[in-house]
Amino acid sequence: MADLFDKFQPLIDQYEALRGSGLRDPFHLQMDEIKSPTRAVVNGREIILVGTYNYMGMTFDPDVIAAGKKALEEFGSGTTGSRVLNGTYQGHAECEAALREFYAMDHAMVFSTGYQANLGLMSVMAGRGEYIVLDADSHASIYDGCAMGNADIVRFRHNSVSDLEKRLNRLPAEAGKLVVLEGVYSMVGDIAPLKEMVAVAKAAGAMIVVDEAHAMGFFGENGRGVFEAAGVEDDVDFVVGTFSKSVGTVGGFVVSNHPKFDILRLVTRPYVYTASLPPAVVACAATSIRKLMSAHHKRAHLWQASRKMHADLRGAGFELGTAEAESAIIAVKMPDQQTSAAMWTALIEEGVYVNMVPPQATPGFNLLRCSLCAEHSNEDVAEIVARFVRAGQAVGLPVSA
Amino acid sequence: MTTTKEEVLPRLIDIIQPFNKKDIELTAATSFANDLELDSLTVMDLVAEIEDEYDIILPVNMLPDLETIGDVASAVAEIKSK
Ligand SMILES: Cc1ncc(COP(=O)(O)O)c(C=O)c1O
Predict the structure, then answer these.
(1) Distance, in angstroms, between B21 CA and closest chain A CA?
(2) What is the distance in angstroms between the Cα of A33 and the nearest Cα belonging to chain B?
(3) Ligand 1 centroid to A115 CA: how many Å?
(4) Domain check: are A147 and A100 in the same one?
(5) Helix (H) or strand (E) holding A91
(6) Can you tell me the distance from the alpha carbon of A355 to that of A344, in angstroms, rounded to the nearest whole number?
(7) How far is the CA of A242 from the centre of ligand 1 (A)?
(8) Residue closest to A105 by CA, chosen among A114, A96, A115
(9) What does the pLDDT read at residue B1?
(10) A104 with A295: CB under 8 angstroms?
(11) Which CATH number fits the domain B5-81, given the four candidates 1.10.1200.10, 3.40.50.2000, 3.40.190.10, 1.10.10.10?
(12) Which of B41, B55, B59 sits opposite A154 (nearest CB)?
């Protein structure tokens, strides 16, 4: 009898080899205690977290916690139902109101995750005979949403305005088109040239989605995202986002000014055929979103810390994914997978957690991806860099303080 | 104007040649995954070259059906003939 697991054997072998090398397993780290947005306890030792998506440090905000506790007690632990049946509570409506206000847009739709928001939007917005034109480095949820629908899918080279334009020009002028962009690309932390891309997409008569998952909270005057910072708010048709990063809980959303937007609540399967978010989660999200609107000091500090860490790591001799800090994600390039795993382990020994990203998930790089939080102090940044240098020297990289 | 698979094939093989790292003989029956062993990044580059040569779009969702060089030649001919 065929064992259906046989197809995974090459991956199993690769993973076993990594574990057998005496290095720690980067994919099964257990956090035993979470002390704050920037500190956790692993194996009885405190480590600095430099690989979360907790950009704005909202997870332990007292107002957010209080709102969640209140909703948990007053509305119970879960809704046990879909948004279109018994799963829309006052809290879900309030959360959508907070989003409309945050983005200054007419409509907002909350999904159970950002992954589902992308699945939903991509699978319904373009149908047979229509086109989705997406960046080659798009997030898995965007690709999966495309695979779920019936549109023809066209990729353009990562962040290439001319390649986007060339591809749009090859499509039938009259066909419906959806161009999908991300504000910040999460593997390398680079941002999209949205001003130019939006202009090209508009000229081709396309509708435009921007996924601002890794930009919400700290790009633009109001923290809306790269599209705000780039001044293209009036030309973007949909913004997708998540509560699992700067907002500090879980959930996803789409906001839009399109007058017919609400029909999506009836036709979007990842919205209809799953349970809605628990009351405590939407209460935390709404509170956090409202606080993010005016979090100017936090935004300013996060930018300053990101630029400092980028400059200091580069100064120490590390090779980074971008020439300058373009976001709060700083990707450190490793020469090969072995060094990457060794460096990751050395960092854990030093008390620093970062994400080890294998080449399959990136455009072919071995990355140690750092992401900063507005709660990292200047002293934290100096300490992280010092530990990076020591770990780098321990694994034989040409770096120095 | 119609274009046939036979017309497309010789030029298509020329375009694929630089991606033929194992230096095998390229025919209509050559498989991209099994014979050329192209990874997904390389496939993207190759698709872009073919698209530029013929000024067409080969949608990503069509690629799983294009197993061999012959399949691609047929697809290009069909799109060009539309
Ligand atoms: C660009 C992008 N979109 C969407 C998502 C999905 O977000 P969520 O964690 O809410 O499912 C992520 C997070 O991994 C992301 O990076």
Answers:
(1) 18
(2) 40
(3) 5
(4) yes
(5) helix A90-103
(6) 8
(7) 6
(8) A96
(9) 66
(10) no
(11) 1.10.1200.10
(12) B59
